[in-house]
Amino acid sequence: MQIALNLPKSTPTSRIEILESAARAVVAVCLDERAGQDGFFAEALGQWYGHRIRKVARRARNKAWDDVQGLAGVTINNQARAFIPSAVKDVPAPIAKLQIGHTDLPHEELGAPLANAPVIYVDNSLEMTAGKAAAQVGHGSMLYAASLSAQEAWEWKQQDFILSVREVPREVFNKALEVPEAVVIRDAGYTEVAPDSATVIALPSPLGS
Known about the structure:
- By secondary structure, this protein is an alpha/beta fold.
- 34% of the residues lie in helices and 18% in strands.
- It has 2 domains: 2-96; 119-203, 3-Layer(aba) Sandwich (Bit1), CATH 3.40.1490.
- The relative contact order is 0.20.
């Protein structure tokens, strides 16, 4: 699955907002109404689910960002658009020409995550770029949705997949690992991190709530 991140040069972009939008865009594609209907949208997802699931985040801005809005997918907050999956050779040209590198953004100091909403914790000791982290939180939101009942997933969809992302120190991340409901994402290690690294954890609510 390809993810385009809108990173304009002229306007400072919030790293956490980009990550939250990417996570929401991915799960919105997976639970889009078209995913449950006959047609190319459902077929693309079905073929992807049957193979190794990967996500690639790419940098877009200005006309390049506008050009990909007409391709099948979902955009959140004009910050991230996730597209229906395809084989690498079939990635549409407007997406393929977007750069994969240079997707980093500065870290931010943030307050507590939203109460009574899922939280995706990112291990900031891994020092992932924003692009890498966007792909990982996309995994997290997608697999968190898969852990829900059909009713719970429908209710989350009615809330537009509200969630928080927080990048936290390893000691906080380890506490999240201990939560029984934790959905843990381990990376294959193709880029930036060692194989089998736990990169993000999705929880149904903030730690300590």
